[in-house]
Amino acid sequence: MHELFANRLVTIGFTKLTPIQEAVATPLAEGASIDALAPTGTGKTLAFTWPLLPNLQPGDGEQLLILAPSQELAMQSTRVIREWATLLDLKVLALTGGANVKRQIESLKKHPEIIVGTPGRVAELVHNGKLKLARLRTLLLDEADVLLREETADQIDGIWDAINDSEVQVALFGATEVDPTVAAGLFDREFERIDRRDVPMPTSITHEFWPTANDQRTKRLRQLASRKNFQAMIFFNTTKALKTTASYLAHEHVAMATLVSGDSSSTRAKSLENFRNGKAKFLLTTDVAARGLDIADLPAVVNFDLPRNGETYTHRAGRTGRMGKAGLVLTLGNDHDLRDLKRLVKVEIATTNGQEARRHDEPRESVQTTPRSATPDVKKKRLVSSVQAFDDAAAVVEAKPTPVKKVRPGVKKVEVVSRVDRFEKEKKAKRKHSKNKGKPKSHN
Protein backbone atom coordinates (compact mmCIF):
# COMPACT_ATOMS: atom_id res chain seq x y z
CA MET A 1 0.00 0.00 0.00
CA HIS A 2 1.16 3.52 -0.80
CA GLU A 3 2.77 5.29 2.16
CA LEU A 4 0.33 8.22 2.01
CA PHE A 5 -2.60 5.81 2.12
CA ALA A 6 -1.14 3.91 5.04
CA ASN A 7 -0.62 7.13 6.99
CA ARG A 8 -4.19 8.17 6.23
CA LEU A 9 -5.52 4.86 7.54
CA VAL A 10 -3.65 5.33 10.80
CA THR A 11 -5.12 8.82 11.13
CA ILE A 12 -8.71 7.63 10.74
CA GLY A 13 -8.17 4.63 13.00
CA PHE A 14 -8.48 1.91 10.33
CA THR A 15 -6.61 -1.08 11.76
CA LYS A 16 -7.39 -4.17 9.65
CA LEU A 17 -8.16 -4.86 5.99
CA THR A 18 -11.15 -6.99 5.05
CA PRO A 19 -10.52 -10.37 3.36
CA ILE A 20 -11.30 -9.04 -0.13
CA GLN A 21 -9.07 -6.00 0.38
CA GLU A 22 -6.15 -8.23 1.32
CA ALA A 23 -6.78 -10.74 -1.48
CA VAL A 24 -6.88 -8.33 -4.45
CA ALA A 25 -4.13 -5.90 -3.41
CA THR A 26 -1.18 -7.62 -5.08
CA PRO A 27 -2.89 -8.89 -8.29
CA LEU A 28 -4.40 -5.46 -9.02
CA ALA A 29 -1.16 -3.61 -8.31
CA GLU A 30 0.68 -5.99 -10.69
CA GLY A 31 -1.81 -5.44 -13.53
CA ALA A 32 -3.60 -8.80 -13.47
CA SER A 33 -7.13 -9.11 -14.87
CA ILE A 34 -9.28 -10.48 -12.05
CA ASP A 35 -12.84 -11.49 -11.24
CA ALA A 36 -13.28 -10.54 -7.57
CA LEU A 37 -16.22 -11.70 -5.47
CA ALA A 38 -17.10 -10.68 -1.92
CA PRO A 39 -20.27 -10.13 0.14
CA THR A 40 -21.93 -6.72 0.13
CA GLY A 41 -20.63 -4.30 2.72
CA THR A 42 -17.05 -5.62 2.78
CA GLY A 43 -15.28 -2.56 1.35
CA LYS A 44 -14.89 -3.50 -2.33
CA THR A 45 -14.56 0.11 -3.51
CA LEU A 46 -11.53 0.68 -1.31
CA ALA A 47 -10.27 -2.78 -2.26
CA PHE A 48 -9.64 -1.59 -5.83
CA THR A 49 -8.93 2.06 -5.00
CA TRP A 50 -5.82 1.51 -2.88
CA PRO A 51 -3.90 -0.77 -5.31
CA LEU A 52 -4.82 0.97 -8.59
CA LEU A 53 -4.36 4.68 -7.84
CA PRO A 54 -0.59 4.59 -7.09
CA ASN A 55 0.01 3.22 -10.63
CA LEU A 56 -1.51 6.33 -12.26
CA GLN A 57 0.56 9.29 -13.46
CA PRO A 58 -0.74 12.79 -12.60
CA GLY A 59 -1.32 14.90 -15.72
CA ASP A 60 -1.17 11.93 -18.09
CA GLY A 61 -4.86 11.90 -19.03
CA GLU A 62 -7.57 9.25 -18.72
CA GLN A 63 -5.93 6.11 -17.31
CA LEU A 64 -8.61 4.44 -15.13
CA LEU A 65 -12.22 3.92 -16.22
CA ILE A 66 -14.71 2.58 -13.67
CA LEU A 67 -18.21 1.64 -14.82
CA ALA A 68 -21.19 1.31 -12.45
CA PRO A 69 -24.79 0.25 -13.14
CA SER A 70 -26.50 3.33 -11.65
CA GLN A 71 -25.97 7.04 -11.24
CA GLU A 72 -26.09 6.71 -7.47
CA LEU A 73 -23.39 4.04 -7.30
CA ALA A 74 -21.20 5.98 -9.71
CA MET A 75 -21.48 9.16 -7.63
CA GLN A 76 -20.91 7.20 -4.42
CA SER A 77 -17.73 5.63 -5.83
CA THR A 78 -16.60 9.03 -7.07
CA ARG A 79 -16.80 10.47 -3.56
CA VAL A 80 -14.89 7.56 -2.03
CA ILE A 81 -12.15 7.50 -4.67
CA ARG A 82 -11.70 11.28 -4.71
CA GLU A 83 -10.80 11.28 -1.00
CA TRP A 84 -7.75 9.12 -1.80
CA ALA A 85 -7.00 10.52 -5.25
CA THR A 86 -6.37 14.01 -3.88
CA LEU A 87 -3.52 12.61 -1.79
CA LEU A 88 -1.74 11.73 -5.07
CA ASP A 89 -2.79 14.88 -7.01
CA LEU A 90 -5.13 12.85 -9.23
CA LYS A 91 -8.41 14.19 -10.64
CA VAL A 92 -11.68 12.24 -10.64
CA LEU A 93 -14.64 12.96 -12.95
CA ALA A 94 -18.12 11.42 -12.84
CA LEU A 95 -19.88 10.83 -16.17
CA THR A 96 -23.46 9.78 -15.52
CA GLY A 97 -26.67 9.91 -17.50
CA GLY A 98 -29.16 12.61 -16.55
CA ALA A 99 -26.42 15.13 -15.75
CA ASN A 100 -25.53 18.10 -17.97
CA VAL A 101 -23.53 16.60 -20.83
CA LYS A 102 -22.07 19.97 -21.92
CA ARG A 103 -20.51 20.49 -18.50
CA GLN A 104 -19.13 16.96 -18.61
CA ILE A 105 -17.52 17.63 -21.98
CA GLU A 106 -15.94 20.82 -20.60
CA SER A 107 -14.57 18.87 -17.63
CA LEU A 108 -13.09 16.24 -19.97
CA LYS A 109 -10.89 18.94 -21.50
CA LYS A 110 -8.96 18.94 -18.20
CA HIS A 111 -8.08 15.28 -18.86
CA PRO A 112 -8.86 13.71 -15.47
CA GLU A 113 -6.85 10.60 -14.67
CA ILE A 114 -9.85 8.73 -13.24
CA ILE A 115 -13.33 8.51 -14.77
CA VAL A 116 -16.30 6.94 -13.01
CA GLY A 117 -19.45 6.61 -15.08
CA THR A 118 -22.51 4.73 -16.24
CA PRO A 119 -22.22 2.69 -19.47
CA GLY A 120 -24.83 4.71 -21.38
CA ARG A 121 -23.22 8.13 -20.91
CA VAL A 122 -19.65 6.85 -21.34
CA ALA A 123 -20.60 5.00 -24.54
CA GLU A 124 -22.29 8.16 -25.85
CA LEU A 125 -19.22 10.32 -25.24
CA VAL A 126 -16.88 7.71 -26.71
CA HIS A 127 -19.08 7.37 -29.82
CA ASN A 128 -19.15 11.17 -30.30
CA GLY A 129 -15.38 11.39 -29.97
CA LYS A 130 -15.54 13.48 -26.79
CA LEU A 131 -13.90 10.84 -24.59
CA LYS A 132 -10.52 9.47 -25.69
CA LEU A 133 -9.31 6.25 -24.12
CA ALA A 134 -5.97 5.84 -25.86
CA ARG A 135 -4.06 6.18 -22.57
CA LEU A 136 -6.31 3.85 -20.59
CA ARG A 137 -4.52 1.38 -18.31
CA THR A 138 -7.39 -0.23 -16.42
CA LEU A 139 -11.09 -0.86 -17.06
CA LEU A 140 -13.04 -1.84 -13.94
CA LEU A 141 -16.64 -3.05 -13.77
CA ASP A 142 -18.31 -2.52 -10.40
CA GLU A 143 -21.34 -4.82 -9.87
CA ALA A 144 -20.15 -6.70 -12.92
CA ASP A 145 -23.00 -9.24 -12.87
CA VAL A 146 -25.46 -6.42 -13.59
CA LEU A 147 -23.29 -4.67 -16.18
CA LEU A 148 -22.76 -7.79 -18.25
CA ARG A 149 -26.46 -8.27 -18.92
CA GLU A 150 -28.16 -7.48 -22.24
CA GLU A 151 -28.30 -3.73 -22.99
CA THR A 152 -25.44 -2.60 -20.74
CA ALA A 153 -23.29 -5.47 -22.03
CA ASP A 154 -23.76 -4.12 -25.57
CA GLN A 155 -22.75 -0.63 -24.41
CA ILE A 156 -19.64 -2.00 -22.71
CA ASP A 157 -18.82 -3.96 -25.85
CA GLY A 158 -18.89 -0.67 -27.80
CA ILE A 159 -16.62 1.00 -25.24
CA TRP A 160 -14.19 -1.93 -25.36
CA ASP A 161 -14.04 -1.75 -29.16
CA ALA A 162 -12.89 1.87 -28.86
CA ILE A 163 -10.11 0.85 -26.45
CA ASN A 164 -8.83 -1.99 -28.66
CA ASP A 165 -5.78 -2.76 -26.51
CA SER A 166 -5.04 -6.22 -25.17
CA GLU A 167 -2.59 -4.72 -22.67
CA VAL A 168 -5.36 -2.92 -20.77
CA GLN A 169 -6.09 -4.51 -17.41
CA VAL A 170 -9.74 -5.53 -16.85
CA ALA A 171 -11.14 -6.07 -13.34
CA LEU A 172 -14.58 -7.36 -12.42
CA PHE A 173 -16.01 -6.74 -8.93
CA GLY A 174 -19.28 -7.82 -7.35
CA ALA A 175 -21.10 -9.95 -4.81
CA THR A 176 -22.69 -12.24 -7.40
CA GLU A 177 -20.84 -14.54 -9.77
CA VAL A 178 -20.45 -13.56 -13.42
CA ASP A 179 -20.68 -16.14 -16.19
CA PRO A 180 -16.96 -16.62 -16.98
CA THR A 181 -17.64 -17.44 -20.63
CA VAL A 182 -19.43 -14.11 -21.13
CA ALA A 183 -16.58 -12.08 -19.63
CA ALA A 184 -13.89 -14.09 -21.43
CA GLY A 185 -15.68 -13.76 -24.76
CA LEU A 186 -16.23 -10.01 -24.42
CA PHE A 187 -12.70 -9.07 -23.35
CA ASP A 188 -10.86 -11.95 -25.05
CA ARG A 189 -8.95 -13.06 -21.97
CA GLU A 190 -9.05 -15.35 -18.96
CA PHE A 191 -9.72 -13.87 -15.54
CA GLU A 192 -8.15 -14.84 -12.24
CA ARG A 193 -11.06 -15.69 -9.92
CA ILE A 194 -10.68 -14.31 -6.38
CA ASP A 195 -13.66 -15.46 -4.34
CA ARG A 196 -13.95 -14.34 -0.73
CA ARG A 197 -17.68 -14.94 -0.31
CA ASP A 198 -17.04 -17.92 1.95
CA VAL A 199 -14.99 -15.89 4.41
CA PRO A 200 -17.41 -14.81 7.17
CA MET A 201 -17.47 -11.15 8.10
CA PRO A 202 -18.38 -10.22 11.70
CA THR A 203 -22.01 -9.20 11.48
CA SER A 204 -25.02 -8.76 13.71
CA ILE A 205 -27.86 -8.52 11.21
CA THR A 206 -31.24 -9.65 12.53
CA HIS A 207 -33.75 -11.08 10.06
CA GLU A 208 -37.45 -10.80 10.91
CA PHE A 209 -40.70 -11.64 9.16
CA TRP A 210 -43.86 -9.71 10.07
CA PRO A 211 -47.08 -11.52 9.03
CA THR A 212 -49.05 -8.79 7.26
CA ALA A 213 -52.03 -8.80 4.91
CA ASN A 214 -51.39 -7.15 1.56
CA ASP A 215 -53.75 -4.26 2.29
CA GLN A 216 -52.11 -3.63 5.68
CA ARG A 217 -48.49 -3.23 4.61
CA THR A 218 -48.67 0.55 4.22
CA LYS A 219 -50.03 0.78 7.78
CA ARG A 220 -47.08 -1.28 8.94
CA LEU A 221 -44.79 1.37 7.51
CA ARG A 222 -46.76 4.03 9.35
CA GLN A 223 -46.21 2.03 12.53
CA LEU A 224 -42.45 1.91 11.88
CA ALA A 225 -42.38 5.64 11.14
CA SER A 226 -43.47 6.36 14.72
CA ARG A 227 -40.30 4.85 16.11
CA LYS A 228 -37.59 7.13 17.36
CA ASN A 229 -34.13 7.05 15.75
CA PHE A 230 -35.37 4.67 13.07
CA GLN A 231 -34.48 4.86 9.38
CA ALA A 232 -34.94 2.30 6.65
CA MET A 233 -34.69 1.65 2.94
CA ILE A 234 -38.03 0.26 1.75
CA PHE A 235 -37.71 -2.09 -1.23
CA PHE A 236 -40.44 -2.60 -3.86
CA ASN A 237 -40.62 -4.89 -6.87
CA THR A 238 -42.49 -2.34 -9.01
CA THR A 239 -42.46 1.43 -9.41
CA LYS A 240 -46.28 1.46 -9.37
CA ALA A 241 -46.46 -0.01 -5.85
CA LEU A 242 -43.72 2.36 -4.74
CA LYS A 243 -45.57 5.45 -5.92
CA THR A 244 -48.88 4.29 -4.41
CA THR A 245 -47.20 3.79 -1.04
CA ALA A 246 -45.39 7.12 -1.32
CA SER A 247 -48.74 8.88 -1.79
CA TYR A 248 -50.15 7.20 1.32
CA LEU A 249 -47.10 8.11 3.44
CA ALA A 250 -47.18 11.69 2.18
CA HIS A 251 -50.86 11.91 3.22
CA GLU A 252 -49.85 10.58 6.65
CA HIS A 253 -47.12 13.25 6.89
CA VAL A 254 -44.28 10.71 7.04
CA ALA A 255 -40.92 12.21 6.06
CA MET A 256 -39.74 10.06 3.17
CA ALA A 257 -37.90 10.19 -0.15
CA THR A 258 -38.13 8.10 -3.31
CA LEU A 259 -35.35 6.78 -5.52
CA VAL A 260 -36.78 5.82 -8.92
CA SER A 261 -34.75 5.14 -12.05
CA GLY A 262 -37.04 7.33 -14.19
CA ASP A 263 -36.46 10.48 -12.12
CA SER A 264 -33.91 13.15 -13.05
CA SER A 265 -30.39 12.92 -11.63
CA SER A 266 -30.92 16.05 -9.54
CA THR A 267 -34.14 14.65 -8.03
CA ARG A 268 -32.45 11.36 -7.17
CA ALA A 269 -29.43 13.12 -5.72
CA LYS A 270 -31.69 15.28 -3.54
CA SER A 271 -33.55 12.19 -2.29
CA LEU A 272 -30.30 10.51 -1.27
CA GLU A 273 -29.06 13.69 0.40
CA ASN A 274 -32.25 14.04 2.45
CA PHE A 275 -32.06 10.41 3.50
CA ARG A 276 -28.37 10.52 4.40
CA ASN A 277 -28.71 13.64 6.54
CA GLY A 278 -31.78 12.29 8.35
CA LYS A 279 -34.43 14.58 6.86
CA ALA A 280 -36.20 11.55 5.40
CA LYS A 281 -37.21 8.64 7.61
CA PHE A 282 -37.71 6.24 4.70
CA LEU A 283 -36.08 5.85 1.29
CA LEU A 284 -38.51 4.07 -1.04
CA THR A 285 -36.70 2.39 -3.91
CA THR A 286 -36.44 -0.56 -6.27
CA ASP A 287 -33.60 -3.04 -6.70
CA VAL A 288 -32.40 -1.39 -9.91
CA ALA A 289 -32.00 2.07 -8.39
CA ALA A 290 -30.40 0.99 -5.11
CA ARG A 291 -27.88 -1.61 -6.23
CA GLY A 292 -24.60 -1.17 -4.33
CA LEU A 293 -25.62 1.92 -2.36
CA ASP A 294 -23.76 2.54 0.88
CA ILE A 295 -25.72 4.44 3.54
CA ALA A 296 -23.56 4.83 6.62
CA ASP A 297 -24.96 3.14 9.76
CA LEU A 298 -28.34 2.38 8.16
CA PRO A 299 -30.45 0.78 10.94
CA ALA A 300 -32.79 -1.28 8.78
CA VAL A 301 -34.02 -2.56 5.44
CA VAL A 302 -37.70 -3.38 4.83
CA ASN A 303 -38.90 -5.74 2.12
CA PHE A 304 -42.32 -4.29 1.29
CA ASP A 305 -42.46 -6.83 -1.53
CA LEU A 306 -40.95 -10.29 -1.23
CA PRO A 307 -37.66 -10.46 -3.18
CA ARG A 308 -37.93 -12.47 -6.38
CA ASN A 309 -34.89 -14.59 -5.54
CA GLY A 310 -32.28 -15.22 -2.88
CA GLU A 311 -29.69 -13.09 -4.68
CA THR A 312 -31.98 -10.07 -4.51
CA TYR A 313 -32.59 -10.65 -0.80
CA THR A 314 -28.82 -10.74 -0.22
CA HIS A 315 -28.24 -7.45 -2.03
CA ARG A 316 -31.11 -5.74 -0.19
CA ALA A 317 -29.89 -7.01 3.17
CA GLY A 318 -26.42 -5.76 2.30
CA ARG A 319 -27.56 -2.14 2.61
CA THR A 320 -27.63 -2.51 6.42
CA GLY A 321 -25.14 -4.06 8.82
CA ARG A 322 -22.22 -3.00 6.63
CA MET A 323 -18.63 -3.60 7.71
CA GLY A 324 -19.78 -5.73 10.63
CA LYS A 325 -22.18 -3.20 12.17
CA ALA A 326 -25.64 -4.03 13.53
CA GLY A 327 -28.59 -4.10 11.16
CA LEU A 328 -32.18 -5.28 10.82
CA VAL A 329 -33.95 -6.80 7.79
CA LEU A 330 -37.76 -6.84 7.97
CA THR A 331 -39.93 -8.67 5.45
CA LEU A 332 -43.68 -8.12 5.22
CA GLY A 333 -46.04 -10.75 3.82
CA ASN A 334 -48.50 -13.58 4.40
CA ASP A 335 -47.95 -17.25 5.26
CA HIS A 336 -47.33 -18.10 1.62
CA ASP A 337 -44.63 -15.41 1.43
CA LEU A 338 -42.97 -16.79 4.55
CA ARG A 339 -42.74 -20.27 3.03
CA ASP A 340 -41.26 -18.82 -0.17
CA LEU A 341 -38.77 -16.72 1.77
CA LYS A 342 -37.49 -19.70 3.73
CA ARG A 343 -36.86 -21.48 0.45
CA LEU A 344 -35.00 -18.47 -0.98
CA VAL A 345 -32.54 -17.75 1.82
CA LYS A 346 -30.58 -19.80 4.32
CA VAL A 347 -30.66 -17.48 7.31
CA GLU A 348 -32.51 -17.69 10.58
CA ILE A 349 -35.69 -15.63 10.27
CA ALA A 350 -37.71 -14.80 13.36
CA THR A 351 -41.47 -14.43 12.93
CA THR A 352 -42.91 -11.60 15.03
CA ASN A 353 -45.99 -9.40 15.07
CA GLY A 354 -43.82 -6.29 15.28
CA GLN A 355 -44.64 -5.49 18.90
CA GLU A 356 -41.71 -7.48 20.30
CA ALA A 357 -39.39 -5.44 18.12
CA ARG A 358 -40.64 -2.15 19.59
CA ARG A 359 -37.85 0.04 20.88
CA HIS A 360 -37.63 0.35 24.66
CA ASP A 361 -37.68 4.14 24.48
CA GLU A 362 -41.07 4.17 22.74
CA PRO A 363 -44.23 5.04 24.69
CA ARG A 364 -46.82 2.27 24.62
CA GLU A 365 -50.52 2.90 24.13
CA SER A 366 -52.52 3.07 27.35
CA VAL A 367 -55.56 1.24 25.94
CA GLN A 368 -55.83 -2.27 27.38
CA THR A 369 -57.08 -5.12 25.24
CA THR A 370 -57.85 -8.74 25.98
CA PRO A 371 -55.04 -10.95 24.64
CA ARG A 372 -56.06 -13.91 22.51
CA SER A 373 -54.30 -16.26 24.90
CA ALA A 374 -56.52 -15.30 27.87
CA THR A 375 -58.33 -18.24 29.45
CA PRO A 376 -62.17 -18.51 29.30
CA ASP A 377 -62.42 -17.82 33.06
CA VAL A 378 -60.36 -14.66 32.73
CA LYS A 379 -62.45 -13.50 29.76
CA LYS A 380 -65.66 -14.26 31.69
CA LYS A 381 -64.50 -12.25 34.69
CA ARG A 382 -63.59 -9.32 32.46
CA LEU A 383 -66.96 -9.53 30.70
CA VAL A 384 -68.83 -9.63 34.04
CA SER A 385 -66.82 -6.66 35.26
CA SER A 386 -67.63 -4.75 32.08
CA VAL A 387 -71.37 -5.54 32.35
CA GLN A 388 -71.38 -4.60 36.02
CA ALA A 389 -69.67 -1.33 35.24
CA PHE A 390 -72.27 -0.62 32.57
CA ASP A 391 -75.15 -1.42 34.98
CA ASP A 392 -73.63 0.80 37.65
CA ALA A 393 -73.36 3.66 35.18
CA ALA A 394 -76.97 3.14 34.09
CA ALA A 395 -78.10 3.13 37.71
CA VAL A 396 -76.42 6.45 38.30
CA VAL A 397 -78.19 7.93 35.29
CA GLU A 398 -81.53 6.48 36.48
CA ALA A 399 -81.06 7.86 39.95
CA LYS A 400 -80.61 11.40 38.73
CA PRO A 401 -83.79 13.49 39.18
CA THR A 402 -85.39 14.75 36.01
CA PRO A 403 -84.84 18.51 35.83
CA VAL A 404 -88.06 20.57 35.80
CA LYS A 405 -88.05 23.57 33.53
CA LYS A 406 -89.39 26.74 35.02
CA VAL A 407 -92.04 28.53 32.95
CA ARG A 408 -92.06 32.29 33.05
CA PRO A 409 -95.42 33.99 33.79
CA GLY A 410 -97.42 34.73 30.66
CA VAL A 411 -95.62 32.09 28.62
CA LYS A 412 -97.69 29.15 27.40
CA LYS A 413 -96.34 25.84 28.56
CA VAL A 414 -95.18 23.67 25.64
CA GLU A 415 -96.06 20.01 25.83
CA VAL A 416 -93.00 17.80 25.33
CA VAL A 417 -93.69 15.04 22.77
CA SER A 418 -91.44 12.04 22.51
CA ARG A 419 -89.72 11.19 19.24
CA VAL A 420 -91.76 7.97 18.83
CA ASP A 421 -95.10 9.76 19.43
CA ARG A 422 -94.15 12.49 16.98
CA PHE A 423 -93.38 9.93 14.23
CA GLU A 424 -96.70 8.14 14.92
CA LYS A 425 -98.67 11.39 14.56
CA GLU A 426 -96.86 12.17 11.30
CA LYS A 427 -97.79 8.72 9.92
CA LYS A 428 -101.47 9.18 10.84
CA ALA A 429 -101.51 12.58 9.17
CA LYS A 430 -100.05 11.10 5.97
CA ARG A 431 -102.65 8.27 5.92
CA LYS A 432 -105.51 10.77 6.43
CA HIS A 433 -104.16 12.96 3.66
CA SER A 434 -103.89 9.96 1.31
CA LYS A 435 -107.49 8.86 2.12
CA ASN A 436 -108.96 12.30 1.45
CA LYS A 437 -106.90 12.93 -1.67
CA GLY A 438 -109.17 13.79 -4.67
CA LYS A 439 -112.35 14.47 -2.61
CA PRO A 440 -113.94 17.91 -2.86
CA LYS A 441 -113.15 20.11 0.07
CA SER A 442 -115.98 20.95 2.45
CA HIS A 443 -116.92 24.65 2.67
CA ASN A 444 -118.98 24.38 5.87
TrEMBL record:
Keywords: ATP-binding, Helicase, Hydrolase, Nucleotide-binding. GO terms for molecular function: ATP binding; hydrolase activity; RNA helicase activity; RNA strand annealing activity. CDD domains: DEADc (cd00268), SF2_C_DEAD (cd18787). PROSITE patterns: HELICASE_ATP_BIND_1 (PS51192), HELICASE_CTER (PS51194). Residues 356-365 have a biased composition (Basic and acidic residues). Pfam families: DEAD, Helicase_C. Residues 352-379, 421-444 are annotated as: Disordered. GO terms for biological process: response to cold. Gene3D superfamilies: P-loop containing nucleotide triphosphate hydrolases (3.40.50.300). GO terms for cellular component: cytosol; ribosome. Residues 428-444 have a biased composition (Basic residues). PANTHER family: ATP-DEPENDENT RNA HELICASE YFML-RELATED, DEAD-BOX ATP-DEPENDENT RNA HELICASE 47, MITOCHONDRIAL. This is Superfamily II DNA/RNA helicase.
